[in-house]
Records
---
Amino acid sequence: MTLIENLFENLRLELRRGCLTLAVLAQLKQEHYGYTLRKALAAQGMEIEESTLYPLLRRLESQGLLTSEWREEEKRNKRFYRLSIEGEQIFARLLEEWNQINTAINNLL
Amino acid sequence: MELLDRYLQAVKRHLPWERQDDIIAELRANLEAQLEDKEAEMGRPLTKEEAEAWLKQIGSPIQVAARYQRQQYLIGPAVFPTYWFVLRLAITWGAIIYSIAKAVDIAAHGLGAEAIVSAVIYLPWVLLINAAIVTLVFAAIEQVGVRYPGKCVPFAPMAPAWSPSGLPPMGVDEANKPRSFAKASAEVIFGFLFLGWLLLVPHYPYLMFGPGAWYLRLPYQLAPVWLSFYWCLVGINIFELTWKIVDLARGAWQRPKSRAKHLSMHTLSLIPLSVLLAAPDHMLFLLKKPEDAVTLGGALASANKGVHLALTIALAIVVLQLVWGAGKMGVEAWRNRVAAMR
């Protein structure tokens, strides 16, 4: 990988990091377990690696933005996540911020 | 699937023990569901090679487990500026205190060159220990803050209650300020006066020592090496004065003092110091009457050793300053070159 490509990759990852959190919070207005969440995000064009998504869910839960519960589905125990009340409030504010940034960038371009 | 079991077992080994089972159960459920989907799509079980490629694409067990770790750094961004500030203080003051303590110890006990070399060799270890202690303390502060966020007072960075109105006024860049004609002329005039004074000192010692010239009545005298030292000083002053006069005559006096000029003068200052250090048997002071050696010889030897040690330290400091200055000049030149290439 050349220096420029490396720089681009770092900046791309930095840009995506915040967006992924927003996408996950948006998708978890409905309950999902890890794998179906990943599929749902991919179906909307937001591909995300397993090794990024599953730890992210844990982190958001430890921050109080998600709630989770273990439940059996299709003869297998799965951990289902959804937005908590605090998560809904934070998501609304983040969305507002996102829209402002989006508008500003569109104006700049 | 045996390969998946082995993969999850490898991930588990690198997870925090208190959450291992929970994380692995969740990861297993997700990966098994994904595997089922893949196999349903293909209408057959994955071959060994396909399963290996799939797990490889998920990531190595260490990488996957690392993402579940709460903290990946020793000292975080909130604490780091203060840590860096304290670390620099600790290293600087550690070096100063250690040097003074060792110099006093060596002079007091009359230790020789071997003790000086040993002290210099041990210096990096002292600084390393200082740095390690500071790092450990700040890492502990960081860890406590992360583990008990609600119970600890948040770490306050340096000067947390700063106000823009309290910022110091803009300083003038003295180094790059053009010199005035008056200043350049005054430097030449005072240079002449200083040189005149320096040339008169050997004939009228009270011009340098004032009332302290009574030392001439002491049973000690300066060794001949001081005469060489004196003429070196005179030579350097004549060289500097000539440079200033040439600058004034060529109209180059407006230019700020360049780093190269500063460095070359600094290099010249090594000559008189080296002359003194090269004194035979480190004899910088002698007895006026050799027969006094029985009563005054011990004190004289201590004085010679102490002054020689002080001169060695001074030389080391000048050399370090010179290396530092040359390094800065090199970096500056390289940056200018890179900027010019752009």
---
Amino acid sequence: MGGMSEVPKPDAATPDPSTVARFRTVMLPHLDAVYGFARWLTRDPVAAQDLAQEAMLRALRYFHAFRGGEARPWLLRIVRNVWHDQRTRNGATDQPLDEIESRAADGPDPEQSAVASDRRRHVAAGLAALPVEMREILVLREIEDLSYKHIATVLDLPIGTVMSRLARAREKLAADLRGRLGRRGHGLPDL
Amino acid sequence: MDCPTCEAMVDAYVDGELSATDSAAFELALETCPDCRRRLEAARTMGGLLRELPADPAPDLLRARIERELRAIAATAQPKSPRERIRWTAMAASLVLAIGLGWLGGSLSGQGARETDELVSGYLRVASSERAVDVASSDRHTVKPWFAGRIDYSPPVHDLTAGGYPLEGGRLDIVDGRKVSVLVYRHNQHRVALTLWPASSTGNAAPKVTQRSGFALAEWRHGGFEMRAVSDLAPAEMASFATAVDQAVDADR
């Protein structure tokens, strides 16, 4: 896809200070998005930090191949590639889900409404429990607010596949949430 | 528009991916298709639910780790003197620590974790910075008075050269919202950051040394002060450092 196909070999030269300075201006503002995406991929805040850091450093090495345009999809694609590499390296061991679900129940919730925070916990747990192909596409669309074109870039898929996968992911999550959330008491219209 | 077409368009419509013409056609079709109206409502609800998940911004520690790497990379690209090379080696060592720290921060919980996080970030500043201390001196009579007026207590300051830990100086840090004194010691190529503040409980508590991902933390109470030491020393060395501190404190009384 466009600029992304120009990713050079990993042995790119050490970037000079002016490249680092430009990288700081263009890419660093997207660190929250990088970390957020890494969190949903890894489902673990600590692994997410390592992933985000490795991705940012790889992005810096490849930065000379960035031809302008949208920085966020470009970065998120690198996050995903690094994650795949890490999984290959570590034998793809995902966190057991019960641990994730119990953690989703921890932590203060900014909103006082118990109903709303209960609902958010269920939604977060439902999203975390989805298979990764569904999880990542929903995060990119609904949380990162990327267009189909950008999602296609990040996931390296044709737009048609983005659309069908997104529809399937929404259906699956809706079905899961119907199971998790009783309809009453959550102020939800039908899912 | 028949229902399968309409159904296929729901997602694209919700996502704002339809052209103006297609959107208009879809809206028209919706009027006669209650199933697709329900489907649209469900897709919108789903989007709303996912968007209300609390954002999880990048932790400060991650930001600091990346900043440090960027600084190091920018600097290694410059021609460097042997002296500088040594400094960057030290910085690389502290990066290893920083990575360990991420793990540490996530594996502890609550108050203690935050304190440990703060202490270890403080140590990383000491280990990686060119200006590790605010007052550089091996003379306790220079370091101790420097703290006066900067914090609301007077920390015991000792040069531990005799025990193998020469004093490098002191600095201020913030732990748990309180300004605290940090003494920096050197041991061969390692630095030890000793953070201390007046204890709220009485009596001494023996040093407890824990090791996490390649660096050592010691936690103890002695002579009316809470002591926290962080370093990339081996745990056994960390224990002797703590003993050396305690002996110096006792000798002073």
